[in-house]
Design brief:
Elements lengths: L1 H11 L8 E3 L23 E9 L3 H12 L5 E4 L8 H4 L11 H4 L3 H4 L10 H14 L6 E2 L4 E7 L4 E6 L4 E9 L8 E3 L10 E4 L5 H4 L14 E5 L3 H13 L2 E6 L5 E2 L8 H5 L5 H13 L12 H5 L11 H26 L3 H6 L12 E2 L3 H4 L5 E5 L7 E2 L3 E4 L2 E4 L2 E4 L9 H5 L2 E3 L6 H4 L18 E3 L11 H22 L1 E6 L1 H16 L23 H4 L8 H13 L6 E5 L3
Parallel strand pairs: 2-3, 2-7, 3-4, 5-19, 7-20, 9-18, 10-11, 10-18, 11-14, 12-13
Antiparallel strand pairs: 1-8, 5-6, 6-7, 15-16, 16-17, 21-22
The structure holds NADPH dihydro-nicotinamide-adenine-dinucleotide phosphate.
């Protein structure tokens, strides 16, 4: 099996790594247009002084705003590209979009808002509505600047503020800036030869064109009834969209490069009797319990008990006496669980050739595990055809269709389920420059790779707080990390405002010490996308990271250990590792 996995990986390694993808710029800029707002929005430009500017109105930005309010900080603005709150859940409205992590732990602030999701795995419209609920309940709408992009950020050393300009002409002078720009937020296209020649209709999954397809996220797409549709990609997004496309289109071609592993979903409506048993504090307890389980910690109970906790269940190899024995048992458990995934394909998909092509041959965490109960069965429909490219990818796109192994598949509509940019150019991903002390850009400061304290602060860029995965926490339930980062940022800002501290920035030594912590974690290895994995965004498309890229690593492994670092820091010597500039006034 090891040899099979290796050969499947080698088949897919390509010299162009991340550069195989096309960003949505230039002739592709139309793919990035917001289809959910009325065109022609205008508003007067603002000139304001603020305590905090938050960049991003997804869960990260919203949680930051909520935690600031709870800390008594109310002078803030949220700048957001979309036409509403929601981030990922604003953009991703493709049919079948749903949360893969249990909704009772993924949707934040359930106890605070008094809301209980309708199902164990909430669908996208419900999650988007929850974002709006948070916006209303915490009075965030009045702070929001939607359909607005930050263009430039300059640190003003005399005023000790960030001067921020936007594409709407705003001039915002903020004491602190929180960047909650999200991860996996910039859609990308596959750099397939001929892509620019396609004459049919096409769009990316994160900008679903319901005007063309008809229907909505949960209803049949009636206008596809006479259409031949192609979808490129079979990642977590495609897995959710394909059953709906299969049910709506006259003909559906699914172009596959690497199959996803599809575990059991078993979604259930929320049991009202269970809801009655919930005691105050239940959500935080459940969130921590899940993160502990998927961080490899032992707990008395597994409260969530789903596909994720099953994957991370290591009870089998806890009895190992040596690390070598543990590694061997872990690998055997992985083979066995992937064998279950492959057996499920064989049991559901009737055509044996299609079934074989849908079987994933790699370790469980090489690619994002998926969970779905209708995806595989969709390939039993007479109008759905899997076009497997045997790891090579689509050969060519023509004005009228898609070519694989020399054969053209004619399509009227082409859907790109090709994922999102992953890059080690942090400011490039944000789309604006951050010029810190002395006008030095963050890009220059990080020319040899990022240097941070807790992944949040960076020397030379005072009062800037970044929420990202760079030298910071990573979690299966990512909202958990965002909330911890939010609480941390709100604590620091509240302390500074209260104590007349006008500027903070990490000391050289604190950054160095933090890097040593990250290095130590790196040596322990990461659960995701190891070097022997099939290529994908988890492992930099299979390319070995250089020394600078290595510095983009997350605090690997145990997520709760990262959270404990932040919590312990807040309980220890006040603002340790940060150099403070106090107000003279
Ligand atoms: P992915 O990056 O996971 O998938 C992109 C797909 O496009 C892959 O199947 C890739 O193949 C394929 N592809 C790329 N280039 C070509 C080509 N030239 N020819 C054929 N196929 C090609 O993006 P997704 O949008 O699916 O998911 C991104 C992430 O978003 C997920 O990993 C997950 O973290 C999150 N997500 C979460 C969801 C949830 O919670 N429910 C739902 C959806 C997404 P290959 O694998 O070979 O590279």
């Amino acid at each position: 099996m090891r040899a099979k996995y290796r050969s499947e990986r080698e088949k897919r390694l390509r010299p162009n790594g991340n550069t195989q993808y096309i960003p949505l710029k230039g002739i592709y800029a139309d793919f990035d247009k917001d289809p959910y707002v009325e065109p022609g929005f205008t508003r007067p430009a603002l000139t304001e002084k603020l305590d905090v500017l938050i960049v991003g109105g997804g869960f990260g930005g919203m949680l930051a705003a909520v935690r600031l309010r709870q800390a008594g900080v109310h002078s803030f603005r949220i700048v957001e590209k979309g036409g509403d709150f929601g981030g990922t859940w604003y953009w991703n409205r493709y049919p079948g979009a749903a949360c893969d992590v249990e909704s009772y732990i993924y949707l934040p602030l359930l106890e605070e808002t008094g809301y209980i999701p309708k199902e164990k795995y909430a669908k996208a419209p419900e999650i988007f509505a929850h974002c709006q609920r948070i916006g209303r309940q915490f009075d965030l709408y009045k702070a929001a600047l939607f359909q607005t992009l930050v263009e430039q950020m300059d640190w003003d050393e005399d005023a000790r503020r960030w001067n921020v300009t936007t594409n709407r002409g705003d001039r915002l002078a903020a004491r602190f800036v929180i960047i909650a720009g999200g991860i996996l937020h910039k859609a990308k296209l596959p750099g397939i030869p001929g892509i620019e020649t396609f004459k049919g209709h096409s769009f990316h999954t994160s900008r679903w064109d319901y005007a063309y397809t008809g229907g909505g996220p949960t209803s049949r797409m009636a206008r596809l009834a006479d259409k031949r549709v192609g979808i490129i990609g079979t990642g977590a997004t495609a897995v959710q969209a394909i059953p709906h496309l299969g049910a709506s289109a006259k003909q559906l071609y699914v172009f596959q490069r690497t199959p996803s592993g599809i575990g059991v979903r078993n979604n259930q409506p929320t049991d009202p009797e269970w809801v009655k048993t919930l005691k105050p504090g239940w959500q935080q307890e459940r969130i921590r319990n899940f993160t502990a389980r998927v961080s490899g910690r032992q707990t008395d109970v597994d409260l969530v008990r789903d596909g994720w906790t099953y994957i991370f269940d290591d009870s089998e190899f806890r009895r190992a006496k040596t690390p070598e024995e543990a590694a061997e048992l872990r690998q055997l458990a992985d083979f066995r669980k992937m064998e279950e995934i492959r057996a499920r394909v064989a049991a559901i998909v009737k055509d044996p050739v299609t079934a074989e092509a849908l079987k994933p041959y790699y370790y469980q965490l090489c690619k994002r595990p998926c969970f779905h109960d209708e995806y595989l069965d969709t390939f039993n429909r007479p109008n759905v055809q899997l076009v497997d490219t045997d790891g090579k990818g689509v050969e060519r796109i023509t004005p009228t269709g898609v070519v694989v192994k020399g054969k053209e598949y004619p399509v009227d509509c082409l859907v790109y389920a090709s994922g999102f940019e992953v890059s080690s150019d942090y400011t490039g991903m944000l789309g604006f420059d951050i010029r810190g002390r002395g006008g030095r850009s963050l890009r220059d400061s990080w020319a040899n790779g990022p240097a941070t304290l807790h992944g949040m602060h960076s020397r030379g860029h005072p009062n800037l707080m970044m929420f990202s995965t760079i030298q910071s926490g990573w979690a299966i339930n990512f909202v958990h990390i965002l909330d911890e980062q939010s609480q941390h940022a709100a604590y620091i800002i509240e302390r500074c405002l209260k104590r007349g501290i006008e500027a903070i920035e990490p000391s050289e030594q604190a950054q160095q010490q933090w890097w040593e912590v990250i290095l130590g974690r790196l040596k322990m290895g990461s659960a995701l996308g190891g070097p022997e994995c099939t290529p994908g965004y988890y492992n930099n498309e299979g390319a070995k990271p250089g020394p600078n890229e290595m510095r983009y690593a997350s605090f690997g492994g145990d997520t709760l250990a990262f959270i404990d670092v932040l919590r312990t820091w807040r309980q220890g010597e006040e603002l340790a590792g940060l150099e403070l500039t106090r107000s003279l006034g």
